């Protein structure tokens, strides 16, 4: 039953089958904070509806009372980005409130101002609980204490994951240099580096790389030993500073792969921006200093451009879609063009590693936004393990969480400062790219679309601890794994909901998606899911499941008949021994 | 010169040839190619490579009439010549003396061929160029079309054709009326086309029409389909309304009244020429649209990728598709919700009337979503219904552009949208639609060669005595065995199709075409229709009280009807989806898509190796075949029931024994990529693609503000 448990509603308005139960299904430790009757919700699709509004420490719940069938609006407070009063009270004392959500919708309510001016209106309570961090309260994730059969915090064990890749080996070693996050506070404790580089040298490299984010291994090709290495930009500056340890490290990365005498450095930024960074002390590897290295710019724009692009996209899809200019409006948001550039970049990386058998170094400015987008997408293309449900979880834990994508800043959990320039939909963009790949390769991923949407919903919900904080170090400091539940505990306890029935496991398949805009689509079932006209359909999955069931049923009947016939034959043929047995046509057995 | 076995089609004659000709391989900028001989025959332009064909490419989906290096003459769209690096469109005048160094052929099925003529003897090159230009571009007479020389052997597998209702006999129409419980009159007076040459040989009209012969049948409401409530859809040719002829106006009123009489004295009329784009608009829009898919090299591809969406929009093609579907939904709403008769009209009554009436029928009647039903619908509305295929497709390369228009393709596009949105409701696949759209330009089938029934009969009669032996053997397109063997024909079936669950298996008789009608919706879903016979004893005065309603003039206020159909769509959408009931398309921008299979199948830049919907479809087909195998095993075993064998045509789905189905390209079954190395397609020219001039682009990633954290 989807109505209970920690789910984010997948349609805007959920119809209640049993209207007599008006109990709000509360989660453990969830407490009602306030509620108000006679609130009007201005639904952009069906018009104003009246009902009651309840605010808990986890969610906003609106229950319509004047319509049949009874339905409700149910969303976690973590999804709110902004709550504000719109205009002054009307002559009848009605006040309008606007709620801007992180998940592509805006809500509007109308409510009477309480006559007793001392009493807080339900919206004031809402503002308090929607932004706990700004109000010196803790996020609901720290209260929520549901117990699941599996502990999701155990999903990612770095040593086990590197061992799966065959590491350490004769060329790559574990370094303990960042064990206590002294070298780099945004990096994980476990780092893999070439054996020929000492920890002392790494320390020197760290002063030459932005935020100390030195080049370390992300993934190694099981056959060619070509490696995917990630880093931040070099601190070259205007004077063209060099660092011989950094040069040595990149040379060592190249040498660790005997198949190629070249190294590709992928700088995710447009070259203009990379050059501009020199003014601020940053920059990129010059080909003079790094012999045998080739630098390629991938032209992906920064977090501000992406935030603006998503804002435009929201304007175009919510609440109404302008029919006659839909395509040019979509184009003007540039959203799919950004997706194309990111996928194209990842494709080039994967191609160099797979077809060129060459090691690559990937970085942007700080190496925590565009870099994880590129490395994790390239890894999905290269390694089928990351296309399984658990493998994908490991990928997120590793490339995004342990390597310090600044989730707290980019999402702004519980923070009312909605204009914060650090917010940006970088992770959403990555999930969109993954979705594009699942569209192009419908049988190559173990998970379905619902899995991706669930991840995005809980990116904002603040129900699970997974996406809290900015780095591994902060998460440990806040004792997030101890004090909160992992999203993977929930997901892995009901895997069957997230499984793609069409999945076929091809262990060695590399996926090269097509990145032309012609093959990219807007992810309608995410970005336009609140529009009731865009009802998502998955007839293929449905039909496939039905056929699987049918096959199983028929197989059973055939086997029964076969057994019967075999028995009969055994009893009759005992007299005619010696004659060639007219064997039963062997029934194919299916996997 | 031509090796034996070259002429796959009997009746084919060679006109000219040249060797060596270099055919560029399209997916390659390096100007590499294959040498071979270029031929021009009365059927096609064909290129035969000097290299031994790689036997490895075992095609499961091979067209028997033409291969990947053949271009049926009718299929040639444009020819360009490259003269000193300059590309020129070849028209009649340019052919005279000079021949180009390179010849580029754009096909109507969107293939692009590029040949270098510089390697062969000047004489030969000139001859082949002029020959091809002449036979592909010059105006010609119908008799020169290959169909009249074609002497294919009638195939033994005629089952398909037989099950398709051809609507060329009174019985077919009677049967159709019976199926839909229509209460109309079959007209046999036009058997010899004495009434009108633009009307079908047989057709059906409202019961109350007495006078057939005035105005050469103009304005006669032709019955299309009856709703179970009793109301029906009619179409008619109308001269433009401005024609101020009192008598004719009176004639029209009589006709409208006759339609109204059909059921509950209600009618809505809709002049399609007023509310939809005309055939020239359609032609212009398609011409713009198709350019985006005629890609000659990968630089062009990536350049056009940047402005892809706005280019599409500027062509207006998707919008025309949307408008047609929208209009069809409006018609469906009248029939289904209001239970009123509908009369759609346009000047000829054989272009947009065919589009709209066929679409409405597909939405309302699940029979037309089966393969045989769909083919019968095309016969009924388009072929017997006198759509001017010859003129609209411009098979004879007439210079007069006024009559050309891809109206039938527009219809297929609309059907594809429905198939795309509601796949389990259709027995046929998108591959079937793609093949059908190609077949229009294969000059072998009688189906698409004529302008009307009268035209067909008169030409066939005139031609048949000339044929050396017996009658003209010009097959219909529905005889798919002419083009594909039975294995390939399996691709026409949609593995997602949900067959209607049959409860009374025992009662069902085999062999009979299933024409039973499925009610489009349980009638309680909308308001209950008033009881039939309510108006039985109505008086004339009562009739006058109920005014005949004209459908609103939609042009003036485009939003108003859209809002009501929007409501109609939403109320339909709120009910559980029944794939054997009423089917409506979602017409919001993001729901209207491009027919990728048809338009992108020859462009290597968009091939997804090991992916695309084909990956799913092959899996589904495999699974379906396993289920069918198991069923058969069970049936064979069930000896007690052996007598009752099912004689339905058995569609075998088990052809797909690929060594690795994970490695087919998304263009399957059309283009094959076996010869291509497994390499990703890296886009070029990304730099130009996204110039963000915003100040945001140059901002620092990290705002300098103090990091606020818990």
Automatic annotation (TrEMBL), chain A:
Enzymatic class: hydrolase
Keyword Cytoplasm listed: yes
Limits of the Tyrosine specific protein phosphatases domain: 333-380
UniProt-listed Enzyme Commission number(s): 3.1.3.95
Origin: domain of life: Eukaryota
Membrane topology reported for the UniProt record: Peripheral membrane protein
Compartments, record wording: Cytoplasm; Early endosome membrane
Start and end residues of each Myotubularin phosphatase domain: 152-527
Active-site residues, Swiss-Prot/TrEMBL: 364
Annotated keywords: Coiled coil, Cytoplasm, Endosome, Hydrolase, Lipid metabolism, Membrane
Residues reported to bind substrate: 277-280, 302-303, 364-370
One GO CC term on file: early endosome membrane
GO biological process terms held by the UniProt record: phosphatidylinositol dephosphorylation
GO function terms (MF aspect): phosphatidylinositol-3,5-bisphosphate 3-phosphatase activity; phosphatidylinositol-3-phosphate phosphatase activity
Pfam families assigned to the protein according to its UniProt record, in alphabetical order: GRAM, Myotub-related
Bias (Polar residues): 569-591
Region feature (Disordered): 563-591
Protein function: Regulates the level of these phosphoinositides critical for various biological processes including autophagy initiation and autophagosome maturation.
UniProt name for this protein: Phosphatidylinositol-3,5-bisphosphate 3-phosphatase MTMR2
Automatic annotation (TrEMBL), chain B:
Top-level taxon in the UniProt lineage: Eukaryota
CC terms in the record's Gene Ontology section: membrane; sarcomere; sarcoplasmic reticulum
Segments forming domain Myotubularin phosphatase: 167-526
Keywords, comma-separated and alphabetical: Cytoplasm, Sarcoplasmic reticulum
UniProt entry tagged with the keyword Protease: no
Biological process terms in GO annotation: phosphatidylinositol dephosphorylation
Subcellular location(s) per record: Cytoplasm, Myofibril, Sarcomere; Sarcoplasmic reticulum
Annotated family: Belongs to the protein-tyrosine phosphatase family. Non-receptor class myotubularin subfamily.
PANTHER family: MYOTUBULARIN-RELATED, MYOTUBULARIN-RELATED PROTEIN 12
Name by which UniProt lists this protein: Myotubularin-related protein 12
Source organism of the structure: Cyprinus carpio carpio
Taxonomic lineage from the root: Eukaryota, Metazoa, Chordata, Craniata, Vertebrata
